[in-house]
Amino acid sequence: MDSLDWAVLIGYFGVMVAIGVWSHKRVADVSDFFTAGGRMPWWLSGISHHMSGYSAVMFTGYAGIAYTYGVTSYVTWSFPIALGIAVGAQLFAPRLNRLRSRLHVASPLEYLKTRYDLPTQQALAWSGVLLKIVDVGAKWAAIATLLSVFTGISLNQGILVTGVVTGVYCTVGGLWADALTELGQFVIQLLAGVAMLVAVLGRLGGVEALWTVWDRPELQGHTAPTAGPYTLTFLLAYLFIKTFEYSGGMWNQAQRYMATPSAREATRSGRLSALLWFVWPLVLFFPMWCAPLLVRPKRADASDAYALMTEQLLPHGLLGLVVVGFFSHTMAMCSSDANAIAAVFTRDIAPALSRAARSWTQRAGLLAARLTTVAFLGLSMAVATQVNSPAFKDIITVVIAWVAGLMGPIAIPFMLGLLKTFRRSGPTAALVSWAAGLFAFWLTAYGLDGVELQIRIVAPLATSLVLYVLLGYVKPEATPERDALLDRIGGDGHGDGAAAVPGQASGERSGQPLG
C-alpha cells in the first residue's frame, strides 16, 4: 500500500465515524438504538441484513477453500445461506417483526420469558452472548490477518484499529448507524468486487475466461459442487443450520426484520437479502477460484491467496478500495453483532440480575446499551488475539465448527418457539434440547477423536431438534398464555404496520422486559 491507498482507507474510517455521529440524533431511546424505532425501509433492512452476514473470513478462510476446492466454496456456503434466508423470509421474518410491532419489545429474546420462562431465557441469552464473543473475535482476527498482508502491522495492532473505529460509530448511532454504514459498505464492496473481477478477467484473457478457464490443469476438480470435507452431507447440514442462523438465530439478523415498519416489509427485506446472497458471492468468488493460476500462497491453508492476488493485480487506489471492502464486511457484521448483544444484555440479562436495571429510565437504559456495546467489542477483541491458539486452532475452524455447531442448540428453542406448530414444547423441551445440544457439540468436537466435520456440525442441531419436538409430545406444556402469545405474533391483522411502531407500551419505554 502507498499513500493513495492509505488515504482511501483513512477516508473510509472517517466516513464511518461521521455516519455514526450523524445517526446519533436519530437515537432518542432504547427502541431507536436497537430496532431503529421500526422505521427502517425494507430495502435498507435487506441490504443491511445481507451485509451483516459477511466478514473478512470470506476473503481469508473461504478464499482458502475456494483456492483449494473451487466452486465448492459457493455451493456449500453462500448458496445454502441464500436458500435458508428465502425460507426464513416467509416463515420467520413476519413473526420477528410482530415481536416489536405487537409486543413492543426491543430485544429478540424478550419474548422468551413469556413463551417459556425466565431460566430458559437466561440460558439462551448467556450462551448466545458467550458464543458471539468468540465468533466476533474470529472476525477481528480475519481482518487483522488481511491488514497484516497489506501493511505489515501486527495482528494485535490490526485488531485494535478496526475494533476502535467500529466501536465509535456503532456505540454512538445504534442500529441506524449500523444500517447506514452497511449501505455505504455495500456500495464500496460493489465497486471493489467488480474491480477485482475485471482485473482477473483481464489477466486471464478477457470475458471468455468465465467459461474457458476451467480447462486449465491448475483448476482440475474446481468445478465439483462438493469436495474434500465439504460433502453433500455437509451441504444439507449447513443448509439446515443456516436457515435458522440467518433467519434470526443470529440475533443481529432478527433485528433487521424487527426494524422494518411491518411484517410484510420484513418479508420483502428477507427476499432482497436472499437474492443478494444468490448473486453477489459469485462475483466475489470467481477471482478466488482462479487464484491457483495467478499466485502461490504463503500460508498452508491458502487464506492469504486473495490478498496476495489483490496486491499483484490492482493499481494503487483500487488496491486501497479493495482493502476497504475487506473492512466493510467485517465491520458490518461485528457492529451489528455488538448491537444485538447489547440488546440482549440490557433488555434480558441485566433486569434478571439487578433490580435497578428493571426500573432504568430511557437515559439510563441508553447509557447501559452503549456501555455494553463497548464491553462486548473489547472482550471480542481480546479473544481475537488468541484465535490461532491451540484451543481455537485457526480462523475457519472457529467460524465453521464453533459457530455452526453451537448455533443450533441456541436457535432451535428461539426460532421454533415462534411457530404455533410447536406450541406443546415448553420450558422443559427448550432447556433439555439446549443442554443436550451443547453436550453433543463438546462430545463430537473434543470428547471423541476423528469425528468428521459434517458430523460435528450437524450433531448438536439434530440433537436439539429431535429432543425439542419429542419432549413437546412426551411432556406437553402448552398454556393459554403461551397460545395467546403465539396467536399475536403468528397471524395477520390488526397490529401490523407503522401504527404500532412508536412502542409507547410501558414495558418498552421503561426498559422492562416482556412478561
Automatic annotation (TrEMBL):
GO molecular-function term, one example from the UniProt record: symporter activity
Keywords, comma-separated and alphabetical: Cell membrane, Ion transport, Membrane, Sodium, Sodium transport, Transmembrane, Transmembrane helix, Transport
The UniProt record lists the keyword Transmembrane helix: yes
Subcellular location: Cell membrane
Membrane-topology descriptor: Multi-pass membrane protein
Transmembrane spans: 6-22, 42-68, 74-93, 129-153, 159-179, 186-204, 224-241, 274-294, 314-332, 364-383, 395-416, 428-448, 454-474
One cellular-component annotation, GO: plasma membrane
Primary location class: membrane
Pfam families: SSF (PF00474)
Classification via Gene3D superfamilies: Sodium/glucose cotransporter
Single biological process term from Gene Ontology: sodium ion transport
Region entry Disordered, spans: 488-515
Keyword rRNA-binding: no
Family: Belongs to the sodium:solute symporter (SSF) (TC 2.A.21) family.
PANTHER family: LD47995P-RELATED, SODIUM-COUPLED MONOCARBOXYLATE TRANSPORTER
Entry protein name: Na+:solute symporter
